[in-house]
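Notebook entry, structure prediction.
Reason for the run: the old model in the group folder had no record of what sequence produced it. Starting over properly, with the input documented here first.
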Amino acid sequence: MDQSVKMDGAFLVNYPADVDRIAPFQPWAKALFMERHETLGRDDPHPRCMPPGGPRQFQTPYGLEIIDQPELKRILVLSGGGNRSYRTIYMDGRPHPDPEVWNPSYFGHSVGHWEGETLVIDTVGFNERFWFTRRPNGLPHTSQLHLTEKISRPDYNTLRYEVTVDDPGAYTKPFGASWNI
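New structure, fully documented this time:
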């Protein structure tokens, strides 16, 4: 099967010929995704030292560090490389803040809990200024983005990251992805 997409004589390698297999795009989101590929991701904010919001935090070069602070009932996820940003995951059972008073951010507002040995994170309250994946570049999102993430450790040297993306502003239905780190 052809794993490249041809647009105006240019090939974008390693993407399925059927772009709709990548995500269940709303028409505007698919058009923006394709435009970002046609321009080879030149407007990607991450190389300009903007924080890697959403799943991209688990895809960036130079790794990440996860710090459990049980005495403070929170977990920090520190991004390596560039801007040395961090995300706070509240583990104290608090609800998400009222969206009318929350200032949307690159990392949103995250609350988490443990299901056995798996950390489950629920995040809302994102701004629209970042691309939330590294590959494929340019998956768009809206301020309606809601992520459910699961992080587990199948063995000593491996983290398993799973994400469900629910953004009715950009996609026709929720979808997910997973990978090992």
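Summary: The beta strands are 5-7, 10-12, 64-69, 74-79, 86-90, 109-115, 118-124, 146-155, 158-166, 175-180.
The old model has been moved to the deprecated folder.
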